[in-house]
Amino acid sequence: MSKNPIYAVIMAGGTGTRLWPLSRQKTPKQTLAVNSERSLFQLAVDRVRPILPVEQILVITASKMAGILAEQVPEIPAENYVIEPEGRGTAPVIALGAAVAEHMAGQTANIICLAADHYIEDVAGFQQALKAAVDVAERGSIVTLGIQPTHAATGFGYIESGAELDSAQGQRVLETIKFKEKPSMEVAEELVSDGKHFWNSGMFIWSTDRVRSEFESQLPETAALVDKVRPVIGTDQMYPVLNELWPTCPSETIDYGIMEGANDIAVIPISVGWNDVGSWSAILDVIDFNEEGNVVREGDHISINTSGTLVQSKKLVATIGVDDLIIIDTDDALLICAKDKAQDVKKVVDRLKAEKRSDLL
């Protein structure tokens, strides 16, 4: 499939604040199970293991999460867990991951950059798309996977596609015209209707040579910092150097920092039942409703004239004459939220931070 060795770079540093109060600093979103006995992180690893050995799976995360993740997937070698001293955005994470992959490979590698908290139904279809993407990346292109939209969504960014470039392993390969930020509902409806736009999955497949050249031209400060880390990767000096330099790295996302200014980006459209599980309302998209039209993740629910409601509680919850609610009950917090306001759960976390209520974070 690829002349260069293939590495997966799984980004697992986020805390998933919009899934509060279940997702906390000690139990971040990627460590939680959504619609399976396995966590989102475990599922992310499961999806790439048929493509490459665990020795070629890198996990970039925070120190407070590394132990939890290592317990969940102990097969991944300890040295493959790369500890980010503090969050600086997805762009520096990918630059660092590419440098580590290149060191481990001893040559140029192709890297598959993935998030640890995505949900995908059609795993076989996803794996086929990844194989095709690696083939295209081998030619020097940056490749992203564009999600075929199922509705006008305002919570995702979009990718505008252009001419068909080629095909790879039976997958269509299209030109990428532009990355677009999260739109209003009116704009989203227009984007979905024209057939040229896909949801931005945030998954990128490219060679480490291409990563280095793009960062040198577009984010030179980040490139220079990673170059200072390269000589000590794999030694006992890596973390002293990284811990000193990383806080000075500019914080940036890969979309803003690199993709919006890059050329030769291909997009492979996929329809694999993808969801980034970014909010409680997204959980309703990946779990089947019961006969009463609700989702009960845990506990006992008496539903009287209630539908479209998500319930998780260790005690009985009774709802009467309400629809489209999110009810999440934990030992120390209770969330009651309108489904269409689920994105605002992050505001609760922001308020708790401002009030220094760290026991609830």
Structure description:
The chain is of the alpha/beta class and 361 residues long. The protein has two domains: 6-139 and 201-261, Spore Coat Polysaccharide Biosynthesis Protein SpsA, Chain A, CATH 3.90.550.10; 281-360, no CATH class. It has helices at 40-48, 63-72, 90-105, 123-137, 185-193, 208-218, 220-229, 238-245, 254-257, 280-286, 345-354; strands at 6-11, 57-61, 81-83, 110-115, 119-120, 142-147, 158-168, 171-180, 197-207, 265-270, 274-275, 295-298, 301-304, 310-312, 317-320, 325-329, 334-338. The strands form four sheets. The protein has a five-stranded mixed barrel with strand order 6-9-7-8-10. Strands 12-14-16-17 form a four-stranded mixed beta sheet, with helices on one face. A hairpin with a 2-residue loop joins strand 7 and strand 8. The protein is globular. The model has no long low-confidence stretch (mean pLDDT 93).
